Amino acid sequence: MPDRMPYRTVALIGTGDMGHAVGRALGAHGHDVIACLDGRSARSRGLAAAAGIRAVADLDTLVGEAELVLSILPPAAAAAAAGHAAAAMRRRGATPPYADCNAVSPATARRLAETLGKAGAPFIDVGIIGPAPGRGAAPRFYASGPDTTPVRALDGKGIVVRDIGAEVGRASGIKMCYAALTKGTFTLHTAVLVAAEAMGLTAELDRELRDSQQAVHARMAATVPGLPADAARWIGEMQEIAATFADAGVTPKFHQGAADIFRLLAETRFAAETRETLDPNRGLEEVIPVYAAGLRRKDG
């Protein structure tokens, strides 16, 4: 008789874009994926149901059944989620390994490790890079901490796990550096286009970019129109990156500015959309005037 699958019951805290897709992938590989959906948005509940994630009554039940907990949330929610999970563990007397997979700074990851450590739970620092499972190449789960065995057991199950050492903060650090480039570039592209619009130079810049920076122009056209749908949850990520850079002795101002751009986009009418409802055919010519109008309202 084969040995029982290790870490068969995996609990998710967060069933949004990434979380529900991870749950679906793990479920397809034989894991029993559970989540407490109390207080979650209708969208998160719908995504969880579509992914085949089993709902449990409350957080105490979740930590009692879980053999591994994966927290996959916007970074601003990471600390509260860890605190609630630690409290539930103390009430239930259960201490499953807790993997924080959120886009937080190394310093924040170490604080979360302390929170879970006080409850007696092993902590694993995880930084996710890449799209959700099922949207192209499998995402990379960078893992660090004293014992990453529970997360490494998920390797090849819709995700790729890369162990990068025993120090909590290393996995978060590589996520911060990567997102500083990718999402930071999105905001720089947006800022350039909005500045040109504000100066009445959109047509001229567009022609120049098409002539001399075709790849950049194509990237702008592919990404900038859809950013408002994610902008609100990426503000906190930029703040975590700024803190990471400051701790490393690098200026935090790039990503403080990136947070400002995401704040601007989060206040546009497009921000009410989700990845499921945004118009994939909407182009720069439609969104940039709206973004610039928001800038003028702030100035006014």
Query: What share of residues is helical?
Result: 40-55%
CATH fold-level topology of the largest domain? Rossmann fold
What is the total domain count? 2
Low-confidence spans: pLDDT under 50, at least 5 residues?
none
Instruction: Give the CA-CA distance, first to last residue.
Output: 72 Å
CATH class of the largest domain: Alpha Beta
The coarse silhouette is elongated
Beta-strand content: 5-15%
Sketch the topology as an H/E string, one letter per element.
Answer: EHEHEHEHEHEEHEHHHHHH
Q: What radius of gyration results from the CA coordinates?
A: 20 Å
SS element count, helices: 12
Largest sheet: 8 strands, mixed
Beta strand count: 8
Q: What is the averaged pLDDT score?
A: 96
CATH architecture field of the largest domain = 3-Layer(aba) Sandwich
CATH superfamily of the largest domain: NAD(P)-binding Rossmann-like Domain
Structural class estimated from helices and strands:
alpha/beta
Neighbour order of strands in the largest sheet: 3-2-1-4-5-6-7-8
Describe the protein's architecture and organization.
With 300 residues, this protein is an alpha/beta fold. The protein is 53% helix and 12% strand. It starts with 8 loop residues before the first strand and ends with a helix. 44% of the residues are buried.
Q: Helices and strands in order, then pairings?
A:
Elements: E1 9-13, H1 17-28, E2 32-36, H2 42-50, E3 54-56, H3 59-65, E4 68-71, H4 78-92, E5 98-100, H5 106-118, E6 123-129, E7 140-144, H6 149-152, E8 160-163, H7 170-198, H8 202-212, H9 214-223, H10 228-247, H11 253-266, H12 284-299
Parallel strand pairs: 1-2, 1-4, 2-3, 4-5, 5-6, 7-8
Antiparallel strand pairs: 6-7
